[in-house]
């Protein structure tokens, strides 16, 4: 038998369910608790969320939904920025969120499932943090653009959309893309035209024509020959040390430099170190050592970097050729993103060499090093997609 | 207070412990239960055990300990043969027994621990099976030679020796080696001289001089450039399909052949297939497809095989040079083992090409394709090591 008190409680719970419809509360609502302290929506135009979920960190940008013209998009202010995860190879990689394990590491199924749950929570938390920072709640959100590494198929997109749908009210427009698309947008101020080249732990080239055709190259992970990535460069360097040690390859400064960096005493120990942890970012972190050795004149290190330049340039050329982005002279934007292409201190600049290599075949290439991060690119895309939908509705 | 009955039971248990000293019984003694049905030792010379623990199966050979001359070693009869595991990539890989994870797959720590326990049980069971088959018990064993992949350091050896020590009575001589050494012995009838080249899922070259110096090359696993292995060949083939698909590489027959073999409908699906399971043997199993394409005239497949030949030959050359095994013309045995070198049906014979390549630099090379399996080589080594110890004792 239910007492009148219990019945009242149950009714209250049911009311709560109705209020929360389409606003699923995870972790007993802890993540979204801040919303209870905010007043009703202030009747403004609302906000946009742009997210960039890479393998090592997730950034969320909150921008106002001001309906001004596209050419002014770059002056849209950032209301709040939140970050989860850090450049630590032990952190949760976001690309496993939806069972896309590559570039995080080759983990077993149980571990992957744990990572997936943790990554979903990370994304939800970072969105809540951004909204909380600017005093907005989910009901004020107009559009969310979530760019995640490892999203390749419409089925990947749909799975993520279904999950996002449960978090936001039904009026919120949701967009899910490969993180390369947000990186392109960060360089083209929200316009999907041209090619982006990313080389971080992994590498990928992704391009769009003005009429919406798209193509990608590389980005297939470490087993499938991603030699232009930081992982690829570092794996080749470790291999060179083993080969020098066992007599198959020339001696190289990489041996002493890498052993010192890893605190190992012999090249034999590199084998154990390599397989002790399945994280790819941990191996990728050795790239600065390779660059230092190449700058000091080590031929083996130099050749590894030259090969990575060829690999990266060939990815871009493949995309440009497939899309017909340029007849050679005609211009197209090439957005360059990721530590391998942008971080350089000495004489060896991988990004510059890649541009030189592409320029030979496509003199019209317009290299762009974005001034904003990919999460801003994602927010710009959210603005663009939302405005297009509005115009489309107004026209019909 | 202990009742007289309980005290008696306890005494009985203690007696049992004394009887079993140095004869640890796993799984409540289930594995070694057959010994209870055997009579006392028949006073003969006893038996030897030779084990070959690879990544996909473990073989145990039981031979009689007949003290005849070394030259007659090849006529030592096999009393029993037992096998555990099978050429199934889901089976337990033995090389994880002692935390040497490479060549099984990049599993997480929990899974690796499970595999280790399972692999130890596998090895113990296969020894019990071999002894049981020929009606011998552990007290009749004179020597055990366990050859395991992934044993590289004296610390690896010691850990395995400690574990074996608990299974056998204290008089049993125990030897633990890298599986490459047993493979060499299988071709040289127990003599540790010359070089062995193994190419299965992984690849390694291992050599000995007559005065006991040793050297190895390659065998550093898939991350560290083991391109001469079945895994290396197959990973390059998968990469070639992805590159052909995204426009970075030439089109190749490998695409349709591999997609058909894997039951996939598009090259894009290869990425998901590759990372769905961290087992390396699963990828390595694609080598026959590469050979068929090369034989059908596909240039990409042909180049992949030519590169693997160069890799394998360079491993052998590195070992021969480091050990000074040959001045060029002087002869040395080269034992060839593993599916990549021995399995061929059509016109492409990787093993033959490797020999051709080595012969150019070392015309004195004497290629040997062993007629017996590596486990027999391990048993021959057990005989040799045991006899040497006996002679050494007799001399002192």
TrEMBL record, chains A, B:
It is an enzyme of class 2 (transferase). One of its GO terms (molecular function) is N-acetylglucosamine kinase activity. Its EC number is 2.7.1.59. Coiled coil: none annotated. Residues 49-382 form the ATPase BadF/BadG/BcrA/BcrD type domain. This is N-acetyl-D-glucosamine kinase. Gene3D superfamilies: 3.30.420.40. Pfam families: BcrAD_BadFG (PF01869). Belongs to the eukaryotic-type N-acetylglucosamine kinase family. It comes from the Eukaryota.
């Amino acid at each position: 038998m239910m007492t009148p008190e219990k019945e009242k409680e149950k009714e209250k719970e049911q009311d709560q369910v109705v209020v929360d419809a389409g606003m699923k509360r995870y972790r007993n609502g802890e993540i979204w608790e801040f919303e209870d302290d905010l007043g009703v929506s202030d009747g403004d135009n609302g906000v946009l969320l742009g997210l960039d979920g890479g393998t090592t960190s997730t950034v969320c940008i909150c921008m106002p939904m001001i309906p001004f013209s596209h050419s002014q998009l770059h002056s849209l202010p950032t209301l709040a920025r939140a970050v989860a995860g850090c450049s630590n190879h032990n952190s949760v990689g976001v690309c496993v969120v939806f069972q896309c394990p590559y570039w995080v590491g080759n983990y077993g199924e149980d571990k992957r499932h744990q990572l997936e749950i943790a990554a979903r929570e990370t994304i939800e938390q970072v969105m809540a943090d951004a909204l909380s920072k600017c005093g907005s709640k989910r009901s004020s959100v107009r559009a969310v653009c979530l760019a995640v590494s490892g999203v390749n198929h419409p089925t990947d997109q749909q799975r993520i959309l279904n999950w996002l749908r449960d978090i936001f009210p039904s009026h919120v427009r949701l967009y899910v893309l490969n993180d390369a698309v947000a990186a392109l947008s960060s360089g083209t101020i929200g316009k999907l035209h041209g090619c982006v080249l990313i080389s971080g732990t992994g590498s990928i080239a992704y391009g769009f024509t003005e009429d919406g055709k798209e193509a990608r190259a590389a980005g297939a992970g470490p087993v499938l020959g991603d030699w232009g990535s930081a992982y690829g460069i570092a794996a080749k360097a470790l291999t060179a040390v083993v080969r020098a040690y066992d007599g198959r390859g020339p001696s190289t400064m990489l041996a002493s430099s890498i052993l010192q960096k890893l605190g190992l005493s012999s090249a034999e120990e590199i084998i154990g170190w390599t397989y002790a942890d399945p994280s790819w970012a941990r191996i990728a972190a050795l790239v600065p050592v390779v660059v230092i050795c190449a700058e000091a004149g080590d031929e083996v290190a130099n050749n590894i970097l030259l090969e990575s330049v060829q690999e990266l340039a060939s990815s871009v050329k493949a995309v440009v050729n497939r899309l017909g982005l340029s007849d050679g002279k005609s211009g197209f934007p090439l957005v360059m993103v990721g530590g391998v292409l942008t971080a350089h201190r000495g004489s060896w600049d991988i990004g510059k060499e890649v541009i030189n290599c592409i320029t030979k075949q496509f003199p019209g290439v317009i290299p762009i090093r974005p001034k904003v991060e990919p999460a801003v690119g994602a927010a710009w895309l959210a603005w663009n997609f939302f405005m297009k939908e509005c115009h489309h509705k107004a026209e019909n």
